[in-house]
Amino acid sequence: MNWIAKLGIVFGCSLSLMFSTPSLVLARSTYPTAGTSVKHHKTKKKAHHPLIPKKKATSASAKKTHHPVVKKTRRPAVPTKTRHLKTRRHPQAARPSTTMIERGIEPRPEANRPDNGGDSRVVHLVSQAAPVNLSHLITARSAMIMDAVTGETIYSQAPDTPGQPASTIKVLTGVISLDSLKKDDMVTVSQHAAMMPKAKVYLKPGKKYPACDLINDLLLASANDASVALAEKIAGSEPAFAQLMTAKARSFGATNTVCKTASGLTADGQHTTARDLARIFNHAMRNPAFAHKLSVTEALDTDGKVVKSHNRALWQVAGTEGGKTGYTVAARRTYVGKFKRGNDEIVVAMMGSDTLWPDVKKLVEYGFVLKRKADLARAGKPASSRMLVQLGNSHQLRRASSL
Fold this sequence. Notes:
With 403 residues, this protein is an alpha+beta fold. Helices cover 37% and strands 15% of the residues. The relative contact order is 0.12.
């Protein structure tokens, strides 16, 4: 090979090397180096961080590009537990704010929100100008609060509206029985008396029972069979005894009371009023034997049987001295009782109630507050602005005598 051919080969190689070097540099600038990951490079550009809200897609194609796994595994910005702790209130903050109603102003709806346990507790300020009306706080159709010493009316709500008395009329049956019979007198139970409906103590027809036992059954257990047996023993028949009951009521000043049964079971023409019940019970409690029998929660009959009282106020309301409950479908729930705190004595009567014991508690607390206000007014002393009565469904009502 001559030197011209060799020179051409060298020249061609040089040209090849000259043009290949820029291509290599261009390739290296276009593709990642050895330390760069292609996957990571694409992730930086397209990946969606789970804690950063994703932008809304602007087109149908953009919605399709969002991977469904990212949506399912995305964690909320605020953990559920932390969110719950932020919204939970302190137990004390959950209670409704104490509302004082001055001059008979109605409580606002938010003041009656139930607190923990479902109780609705509203504190009312009883002003001298206009005491709060209880008609919107109790379910009783009619009610009466009477000063047991003077006989004056402390509070009344339709007190002269007549209605069926239910078993509260057994107060008259008990008083007449105590006046007419000795405790050792034996009473024979008739078939008519034994067939009386509940409540009853299931007396056996033809059997004789001591009068003291039947009176306990009558006043504590509100037994209908015992009341009829006593009525037949005293007057010969229940209708004749009912006439004695009406006459006794008249002697107590209860002029709107007519009795047709010894038990108080619903009967045509039988009626009484809340005012009459208060008068009857106040006079009956002046009989020591009657007052003693109604002051106990249970009694022991001569045969060893325990008779328990239906009057829950004895262990639920402070100052209870005695009371009588009643219920029939026509009368609804009825009640009459006497209460004493310090030197203050009141008689509470109500008829046609749907919530017996809450109504009793409200009437008793309200009655003692008004009684104390009246006593201060007669003494020429101003009533304290802190004379509060707590009216609600709580079993622990504030005692008026401690205010």
